[in-house]
């Protein structure tokens, strides 16, 4: 695949940081606008998809939602869920179409603005300048592992969800999965299916049905216009960006995940993990609250679908309201590490972004980027690929193309303004 060489110019109209689906989507749209640009990728294109997903990973949204620029889903199972290798193939074919100008294996160390209004990008392969810069490095860069993990005995293997591949990489013995979001719930299921004894420390992640009243819930929500709703139209506004994703799976053709069912089958559930001290794992006594809250979200989404069906007179099979299949007998706040037989812990509590290299005034007091549909108040600086950049699909295959097209038009306007200013300057 073509890769930019250092012999090429060091100044570009646009510099892009990040060579994942967001960066390549931006490249595809800029190519259509005939705007010169260069991508920096510290690893290789689509690195996280190829290295940070477990073996049984699948999409949790149907394949038909994959809609990268000029590259819709191209398989024969639109209502299915691509497996890890199929996803990689889909992305490789996208990269082959885009043929992006990219420097792989090049880390960006600093991005700053110069006195002349251009941007200086310092990399491990030298300095580059650009009239505009797009940050496409994503919001999931630094794995979160709490400091209490330092006190857990070295005899216990500890890994983050981005390191997990399969149960065979773990030592004999039980596993503690910390976190019940999408990754935690699916990894706990993977281990459970493989016959591992699993302890699961739950969190506040909601859940959603896979199929309801004859269709995938994603289809219903799409019909209802949810995926077209912008962050400005969402009841939570920008607060929706902090929401935890609903847990569900595309495994084996797709199904819902019910942690209560796992408990019936022998998985041991706890509330939020709070500490480790003197050989004891300490949990918050909120397991019942976590399970009830997840079920409330599940039922609320189904109720919204019911209302939509009734309002539009749609003929759809009726389903009974969900009833819990298991209830905790007690709230357990302590678990003896040695007695439990736990020999490995998988931390599934998410990631934080890393913009330490971005020396520009584009952040709020919490360190989060401030933007409107990816456009910051710092002229010439843009973000793409972040969760809810504009819609639910912004951080996924379904919405990044629209975001890239929008930003490319904004960038085109800035390019034209620059050219007009230069023309007037030359004429005078």
3D structure, described in words:
It comes from Marinomonas arctica. Keywords: Oxidoreductase. This is MSMEG_0569 family flavin-dependent oxidoreductase. Pfam families: Pyr_redox_3. InterPro entries: Auxin_biosynth/cation_transpt, CHP04046_FMN-dependent, FAD/NAD-bd_sf. By secondary structure, the protein is an alpha/beta fold. The protein folds into two domains: 11-141 and 353-427, 3-Layer(bba) Sandwich (FAD/NAD(P)-binding domain); 143-347, 3-Layer(bba) Sandwich (FAD/NAD(P)-binding domain). Helix content is 27%, strand content 20%. The protein contains nine helices and 21 strands. It has helices at 21-32, 47-51, 84-98, 182-193, 217-223, 259-264, 287-311, 337-340, 400-427; strands at residues 11-17, 37-41, 67-68, 71-72, 102-104, 108-113, 119-123, 126-135, 142-143, 157-160, 174-178, 198-201, 211-212, 215-216, 268-270, 273-277, 280-283, 334-336, 342-347, 351-352, 381-383. The strands form six sheets. Strands 1, 2, 5, 6, 7, 8 and 21 form a seven-stranded mixed sheet that branches. The protein has a five-stranded parallel sheet with strand order 10-19-11-12-15. A hairpin with a 2-residue loop joins strand 16 and strand 17 (280-283). Helix 1 (21-32) runs parallel beside helix 3 (84-98) and helix 1 packs across helix 9 (400-427). It starts with 10 loop residues before the first strand and ends with a helix. The relative contact order is 0.17. The model is unreliable at 1-6 (pLDDT under 50).
């Amino acid at each position: 695949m073509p890769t930019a060489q250092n012999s090429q110019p060091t100044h570009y109209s646009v510099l892009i940081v990040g060579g994942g689906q967001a960066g390549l989507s931006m490249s595809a749209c800029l190519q259509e606008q005939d705007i010169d640009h260069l991508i920096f990728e510290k690893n290789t294109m689509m690195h996280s998809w190829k290295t940070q997903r477990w073996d049984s990973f699948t999409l949790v949204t149907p394949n038909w939602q994959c809609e990268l620029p000029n590259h819709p889903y191209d398989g024969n199972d639109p209502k299915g869920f691509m497996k890890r290798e199929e996803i990689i193939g889909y992305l490789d074919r996208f990269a082959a179409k885009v043929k992006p100008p990219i420097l792989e294996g090049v880390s960006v160390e600093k991005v700053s603005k110069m006195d002349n209004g251009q941007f200086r990008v310092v990399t491990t392969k030298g300095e580059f300048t650009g009239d505009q810069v797009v940050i496409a490095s994503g919001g999931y860069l630094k794995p979160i592992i709490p400091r209490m993990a330092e006190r857990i005995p070295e005899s216990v293997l500890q890994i983050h969800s981005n390191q997990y591949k399969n149960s065979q990489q773990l030592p004999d013995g039980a596993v503690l999965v910390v976190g019940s979001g999408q990754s935690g719930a699916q990894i706990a299921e993977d281990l459970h299916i493989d016959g591992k004894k699993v302890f699961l420390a739950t969190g506040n992640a909601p859940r959603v049905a896979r199929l309801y009243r004859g269709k995938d819930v994603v289809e219903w929500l799409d019909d209802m216009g949810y995926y077209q709703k912008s962050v400005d139209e969402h009841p939570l506004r920008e607060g929706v960006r902090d929401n935890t994703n609903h847990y569900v799976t595309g495994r084996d053709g797709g199904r819902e995940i019910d942690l209560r069912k796992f408990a019936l089958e022998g998985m041991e559930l706890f509330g939020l993990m709070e500490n480790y001290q003197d050989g004891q794992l300490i949990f918050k006594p909120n397991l019942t609250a976590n399970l009830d809250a997840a079920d409330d979200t599940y039922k609320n989404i189904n109720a919204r679908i019911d209302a939509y069906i009734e309002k539009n007179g749609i003929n759809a099979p009726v389903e009974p309201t969900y009833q819990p299949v298991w209830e905790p007998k007690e709230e357990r706040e302590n678990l003896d590490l040695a007695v439990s037989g736990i020999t490995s812990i998988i931390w599934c509590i998410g990631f934080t972004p890393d913009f330490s290299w971005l020396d520009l005034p584009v952040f709020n007091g919490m360190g989060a980027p401030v933007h409107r549909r990816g456009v910051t108040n710092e002229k010439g600086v843009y973000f793409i690929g972040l969760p809810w950049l504009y819609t639910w699909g912004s951080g996924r295959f379904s919405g990044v193309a629209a975001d890239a097209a929008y930003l490319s038009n904004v960038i085109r306007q800035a390019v034209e303004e620059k050219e007009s200013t230069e023309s007037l300057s030359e004429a005078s």
